[in-house]
Amino acid sequence: MNNIEIIHGVGRTSIFVSSFRLYITNMYLQLVKSKQVEFQNQEEKDYMEFYLKLVGVHNQSDHLNFPKFYDPHAYHFLNTPYAKKILSDTAYSLLLNPEKSEELEKFLNEASLVEAWSAIFGLDNILDIGIRTKFIDDWVLENKHLKQLVIFGSGLDTRALRLPLPSTMTIFEIDLPHVVEYKNNILSNIDVGKISKATRHSIFADLSESQWVSELESRGFNRDYPTLWLMEGIVMYLDPQSNSNLFKNIGLNSAEGSKVNVHTVGTMKMGISLKFEAENPAAKRLGLKTFNWGMLNDEFGSKFDNPSEILTEMGFNKNIKTFNGSEIAKILGCSEIQNLLSEYTIGEK
Ligand SMILES: C[S@@+](CC[C@H](N)C(=O)[O-])C[C@H]1O[C@@H](n2cnc3c(N)ncnc32)[C@H](O)[C@@H]1O
């Protein structure tokens, strides 16, 4: 299979999300550099020192109380010719004045990865993903006693590696074949350490079909164990029938005590990018529009934004709760971050 497939179609959205995590990681590294972070252990300290040397730090002027996490793999996923092509294609698509093409090319050649990606995306989008990552990290950690975690549309999510998860947990990541291959090729060529002790399985599957269930079973999934089911950044890409089948299959394969977390984006909000464009000096100088998810309309499959009903039908009717991004930001102590697009519905069987 060819890595180049990642450049086109829905798989490239996994690169976009990874670039947001690179940005937050960079914010975190700034704290490390200015010695404002207390390390959990020596391994983390050594790693951060190594990482600082590898990627350097692009100084950001934001003084927000941002969600604190780092994703040490994001840099590697973005530092490939394929991801750089996605970056430049996206940047050119946002260029308002074609006469600035040469200047844009020069910028893309010279800027650090974090600097280049942050000229494209608004800070509101980046923080939305930051809050989302941290909220879901915490949800997974709170439930780490469960033996199985299934991540649908896992993309370049690296929870299975970077979170302190126990060896009793097995994680099944499901995505399209070329995305899984892209990720695994990079992971097999880098050495950034693995904090998680969980076992990770990668499954190639198109979630608009149902073969993922037999694939899961063939990799050791046991439907008698309570399972954590995570849908982050995926239901909006599936059509209504596929979503309905997906939830039905989850219901059929969930033992009592299983839990779900469904991330949705209010459809009306997808085209919105609320701030930052005027604040990013490179974007301003080059005259770049700010990317917004509404530009990916071709890839969206549904307006699925109210999972509570279907969760109840599937028997996930205990403790169903929907949080909006601003509520989560408050819980995480980042209440100055507002106007977030994402919502999260959790439930338990
Ligand atoms: C926006 S990314 C989110 C990735 C990851 N969950 C995260 O939050 O970092 C969407 C992911 O869904 C995957 N995806 C979209 N449609 C899919 C399908 N029909 N079957 C499997 N994966 C799909 C894409 O390949 C991509 O990796």
Topology:
Layout: H1 12-33, H2 42-55, H3 74-78, H4 81-93, H5 101-110, H6 113-118, H7 123-142, E1 148-152, H8 159-162, E2 170-175, H9 177-189, E3 199-204, H10 212-218, E4 227-231, H11 240-252, E5 259-265, H12 281-286, H13 308-313, E6 318-324, H14 325-331, E7 342-348
Parallel strand pairs: 1-2, 1-4, 2-3, 4-5
Antiparallel strand pairs: 5-7, 6-7
Helix pairs in contact: 1-7
This protein binds S-adenosylmethionine (SAM).
Provide a descriptive summary of the structure in words:
With 349 residues, this protein is of the alpha/beta class. The chain has one domain (3-348): 3-Layer(aba) Sandwich (Rossmann fold), CATH 3.40.50. It is 42% helix and 12% strand. It is built from 14 helices and 7 strands. Strands 3-2-1-4-5-7-6 form a 7-stranded mixed β-sheet, with helices on both faces. β1, α8 and β2 form a beta-alpha-beta unit. The protein is globular. The chain starts with 11 loop residues before the first helix and ends with a strand. The site of S-adenosylmethionine has 21 residues, from α1.
Biggest sheet, strands in spatial order?
Answer: 3-2-1-4-5-7-6
Assembly type: single chain
Helix content: 40-55%
CA-based shape: globular
Looking at the overall shape, the CATH architecture is: 3-Layer(aba) Sandwich
CATH class: Alpha Beta
What is the β-strand count? 7
Could you give me the name of the CATH homologous superfamily? Vaccinia Virus protein VP39
Strand count, sense and barrel status of the largest sheet are: 7 strands, mixed
